[in-house]
Amino acid sequence: MKVHVHMKRALVFLIYYMFVAVEVIGNRGNSSGVFDGTRVINVGAFFAYNSTIGRSVGPALLAAIEDVNSDTTILNGTKLNLILQDTNCSGFLGTVEAMQFMGNDVVAILGPQSSGIAHTISYLMNELHVPLLSFAATDPTLSPLQFPYFLRTTISDHFQMHAIADVIAYFGYREVVAIYVDDDYGRNGVSILGDALAKKQAKISCKAAFTPGASRSDIDTLLVGANQLESRVFVVHVNPDSGLNIFSVAKRLGMMTNGYVWIATNWLSSILDSSDKVKQETTDLLQGVITLRHHTPDSNLKTRFISRLGSMKDKETPKFNSYALYAYDSVWLLARALDEFFNDGGTISFSDDSRLLSTNESSIHLTSLRVFNQGQKLLQILTDMNFSGVTGQINFDSEKNLFRPAFDVLNIGGTGSRRLGYWSNYSGLSIVSPETLYTKPPNTSIASQHLYSVIWPGQTTKRPRGWVFPNSGKPLQIAVPYRVTFPAFVSKDKGPLGAKGYCIDVFEAAITLLPYPVPHQYILYGDGKRNPSFDSLVNAVAHNKYDAAVGDVTITTNRTRVVDFTQPYIGSGLVVVATVKETKSSAWAFLKPFTWQMWGVTGILFLFVGAVVWILEHRMNPDFRGPPSQQLVTVFWFSFSTMFFSHSM
């Protein structure tokens, strides 16, 4: 208990110290205002300086601020003052630094790169009405409904996970193992992946999570457990700064060989794009891995910007990943929005939050947090912007996502990577660039999905099966209908299989053709006294009570919606089923269709018809007159003639 008290006191002291620092900085002239005759607008930016993303983002932000301030066509002489803070990959520091920014009267904050920090400070931005433009927080649960002042200026992981699901479905895999970091970024991304796979009739068979900053021994334990599972398809969704440890351990465990499939989200391409020349030991770890990279169309603006970044001095990275491009566009997005804001007669002002005045006696000085009065108007202008940036066209849809997200699909091999194709939410997987497809009607049909051939782990072009039978695994549970009728198809057997019949013979013949053993066990479905419900049998397979079913199960539309069927190997078509009996033929065979009772009723009806006709005709028709015997013969004759329709009308 005392430990917690001391920790709380230390935390309060640290926050107090930082807010005192904020006041000092503000007095030194860092607040928005007019300095030396020039109007200055404060903009905050915070990220982890010494990180894969931070080393690319930092120079890009400085270059963007310099370009904006030197451009005489925008902001009409107003300058942007960028205030940088280093989060050092700490959620606590990130939250405190966000409060520091608010003491400097910033009109917007660029960042953070951490989805966890973005979740926390978005509550603060909601209350203080300061737009938060994040170029790297990709957590799809950062919803504009919950966090209206959060504006993602990069591609959400919602789209990336659907791209991963499309790649998995393209190669025909149904189960994957998700390896991810156990934070907001990892958990929520994998959750979206599970939903996307479910739409493809696939699933995540195991979620293997590790804590942020996990040691190599922890990762080793995690992968040893994952290697004992049935699935050999692994999706890795981790942070760039620790992701290579996964593949280093996997290489040592022999998990980068034939039969394995590794798919990494765009964190891997961020590492590779940040290196001028990837080290040989790094590429050796990644042979055969499939990864994604943000797709940014080629343009003169992009080429000039990359060239400029490459020629910068004092840079900490030889090359820059795609997050640098999104950071650069984020600054220009804010600058253009402010330009439109000022052109519409807008002014910048801040006010105290009345709810914080009651804390004036507190040593934390929360009253330094002020509300940006025009934050709502600036946010609306930001979401309505539409211009061409280094990443392509910058505009947002109704859910504040960048319009037309797209990725490059890469395959690591040799000393680098090669592009297998593209993914876009417009047309799915394609070997044609998204810009070309945008000129055509959207097409996400299965037949339109294409990628170039992959070099898989083990330097093979043969697609891995993607699963194995685990050593400790159970045999497949195969349900067979235990029915009363038609036992020739499937029935109970006292032999070692436990079932016999034509369907069992076909299944066993198919099993013997496979190049690997398939342990299986037949489970009788039903009590053998009455026919079981085949719909219930199908639903039991769909709900994973059984792994499969073998029997004369009719393929219907409703059943195909929940399970997969093999190609039918019995096709009866439309037939009439009748029992077969051996009978002797005779001259009276024509009487067989009806029973003697039916023939008797038919004869009585004919006589009745003849009698009625005689009653109606004998008074006027001479053919129906004469002696009684003649009239009786006429009645019988007429009745007999009606049977063969031989009478004249």
DSSP summary: helix tally: 20
The shape, in one word, is elongated
Beta content: 15-25%
The amount of helix comes to 25-40%
Largest sheet, described in full? 8 strands, mixed
Name the structural class.
alpha/beta
| Head-to-tail CA distance between termini | 115 Å
- Mean pLDDT over all positions: 85
Total count of strands: 23
Low-confidence residue ranges: 1-31
Radius of gyration: 39 Å
Largest sheet: spatial strand order: 8-7-9-10-11-16-17-18
Task: Describe this protein with a few key phrases.
alpha/beta, 20 helices, 17% strand, disordered N terminus
Helix-strand blueprint:
Layout: H1 2-30, E1 33-35, E2 38-47, H2 52-70, E3 79-86, H3 91-103, E4 109-110, H4 115-128, E5 132-134, E6 150-152, H5 157-170, E7 175-181, H6 184-199, E8 203-210, H7 216-227, E9 233-237, H8 243-252, E10 261-264, H9 267-273, H10 280-285, E11 290-294, H11 300-310, H12 322-343, E12 350-352, H13 354-357, E13 370-372, H14 375-384, E14 387-389, E15 392-394, E16 406-413, E17 416-424, E18 428-430, H15 434-437, E19 476-481, E20 491-492, E21 499-500, H16 502-513, E22 520-525, H17 534-542, E23 548-549, H18 557-560, H19 596-617, H20 628-644
Parallel strand pairs: 2-3, 2-4, 4-5, 5-6, 7-8, 7-9, 9-10, 10-11, 19-22, 19-23
Antiparallel strand pairs: 1-2, 11-16, 12-13, 14-15, 16-17, 17-18, 20-21
